[in-house]
Amino acid sequence: MSKKFQNTTADYLEWDSNILLISKLYQDQNYKFSLLITLGSFFGVRISDLLNLKWCDILNTNTLNIIEKKTKKQRTIKINDQLKKHIQACYKEIKPQTTDDFIFTSQKGSVYSVQRINVVFKEIRVRYNLKIKNFSTHTMRKTFGRQVYNNAGNNAELALVKLSELFNHSDVRTTRKYLGLRSEELMEAYDLLSF
Predict the structure, then answer these.
(1) What does the alpha-carbon distance between residue 27 and residue 24 come to, in Å, rounded to a whole number?
(2) Per the CB 3.0–4.6 Å rule, which of 14, 69, 99, 193 could disulfide with 56?
(3) What is the value of pTM for the model shown?
(4) What is the CATH number of the domain that holds 89?
């Protein structure tokens, strides 16, 4: 956990590593954290919005409609078919009492705190030997952003515009900095030089 008023940055996971982690967590019967990382990296929302989700919000539907806790803006998220299958599989294994239950609850029945999730993420990073320095709840959102950007190919600038809107950033420069792209792009300039 970071000290008060200390600036910390989360890193992103490479998509293949992210999917492998989700699969390993599921195989190890850690269904809630498999689902948490899945939803976080497929939806790209903040942890505060994930913790507010109930089963009825994501079961048997094609879209998730939320009001973001931080921005108070409404957001509609598409739930693709592969994600629906993972949601159903986790639901069957977790067996909540009702679909009105919050998804991410502890054994005591209370919704996880962000601090507790970050502690568990540190344990997951070590246990699964993740090649990432700063693995926290924000990693899921950054992983989403990087995957959208990386899959854009020749449409990278359009992807940044879309991500800027999805993340509710004031402009594309903020999104570029958020994803860590600016420094990478600047460093690539040195690779253009040769003898």
Answers:
(1) 5
(2) 99
(3) 0.86
(4) 1.10.443.10
